[in-house]
Every structure is written in C-alpha cells, then in structure tokens.
Specification:
mainly alpha
Length: 83
C-alpha cells in the first residue's frame, strides 16, 4: 500500500477500537466497552487491516500510527456512552 496517496479516513468508532487494541484487550472486551458484538469488532478490524494493508494487529498498529489514525503517545479515546 502506498501511504503517500493521501489520508484515509476512519470512523470515530474505529479509532476507539484501535486504541483499545493498543491496550491488548480481547475482542469480547472491546465489544463490551463499545456496546457492539464480537463479530462487529472482528469485521471492523478486518476492514482497518485491509485499508492499512496490514496482515495482523501488530502491523495494523504501526500502520495506523503512520497513517495518523492514532497517536500512541495519547491516552485512549473515550468510550462511547450506551444510549
């Protein structure tokens, strides 16, 4: 993937999901915090990996940082409130 082609935009939910992955949470823990199913967590991660050209979560974290999706020096984004 050519990371110089311009910014790829992700949703706020996906950005929060990435931060929770940085804290090494399991899929079911992420789902509980974001009030989404485990399958939705997995589908969102698959989408992000495809966008970033990453083969695994470790590579996704590195590419997400390079793409400006996350800043590993900042605390995790706040979790959305359940409505």
């Amino acid at each position: 993937m050519d990371l110089t082609q311009g910014p790829l935009v992700i949703e706020d939910l996906e950005r929060t999901l990435l931060y929770l992955c940085l804290y090494d949470l399991r899929d079911h823990e992420i789902g509980e915090r974001l009030f989404i199913s485990v399958r939705t967590v997995q589908r969102r991660l698959e989408r992000l990996m495809a966008l970033a050209g990453a083969e695994n979560r470790f590579t996704l974290g590195a590419r997400a940082t390079k793409l400006g999706w996350i800043d590993p020096g900042l605390p995790a984004a706040p979790t959305p409130k359940h409505q």
